[in-house]
Amino acid sequence: MRYSWPADTADRFQLRIHMDAIHAGYIGWLYQCKYLAPFRKKKMTILNTLNNNTPAVQTTGRIMIAALFLVSGMAKLLAPGPTLLFIAASGLPFAKLAFLIAVSVELGGGLLLAFGVQTRAVALALAMFSLVTGLAFHHAIGDQMQLTELLKNIAIAGGLLHIATIRANTPQLQKAPHA
User: Fold this and answer.
1) Phi-psi region for residue 118, left (φ > 0), alpha (ψ -120 to 50) or beta?
2) Start-end of H helices in 79-165
3) Residues 145-179: tens digit of each pLDDT
4) Most exposed of 34, 62, 104, 163 (fewest Cβ within 10 Å)?
5) 178 Rama class: left (phi>0) / alpha (psi -120 to 50) / beta
6) Helix H or strand E encompassing 59
7) Is 106 exposed, middle or buried (0-12, 13-18, 19+ CB in 10 A)?
8) CA distances from 154 to 58, 121, 127, 158 (A)
9) Mind listing the pLDDT tens digit for each residue in 62-115?
10) How far apart (Å, rounded) are the C-alpha atoms in residues 62 and 119?
11) Distance between CA atoms of 156 and 162, rounded to whole angstroms?
12) Measured CA angle at 98 (ends 156, 112), to 5 deg
């Protein structure tokens, strides 16, 4: 059977209704098909797990972000020379003090975040630390590498702000609420 394109608007409208009916019939048949029944019963179980904000998913994400701070803090601690030179080159007056603050915030905050101790306060502190260090040390956005580092710090701060908005998942490390 050969179709020709309708000449006027009314015929085009009728053709559109006809095509919609064919499509609706196909979708209805597809939904009722017995071979697809197992997939209808399990409606996106992975997405439902993520949408339920299960403690395992939240804890895993929190540990993954904490690992970034722990690795960075350990790298600074094991090789302080390049970090001290970078801090001094940026124009901060007390490079050693800034170095000690950075290492303590990264290691301490990373450990606290990983273990879920005062999660909200630690996440907010680390978010502020990420934004401040990003703006203080990676402000030369004309350089592609510095722009990437700044955007990385902003993205980390965004993830930490999200962590700060969710409930803590390790109740054994949090204070129990008073009844």
Assistant:
1) left
2) 80-89, 95-115, 119-137, 144-165
3) 989 999 999 999 999 999 998 865 444 455 555 65
4) 34
5) beta
6) helix 55-78
7) buried
8) 20, 18, 8, 6
9) 999 999 999 999 999 999 999 999 899 988 889 999 999 999 999 999 999 999
10) 9
11) 10
12) 45
Coil, strand or helix at 33: coil
Q: Are residues 101 and 16 in the same domain?
A: no
Length of the chain: 179
Range of the domain at 21: 9-42
Residue 47 lies in a domain: no
Residue 130 and residue 67 share a domain? yes
One-letter amino acid for residue 130 of the chain: S
Domain count, the chain: 2
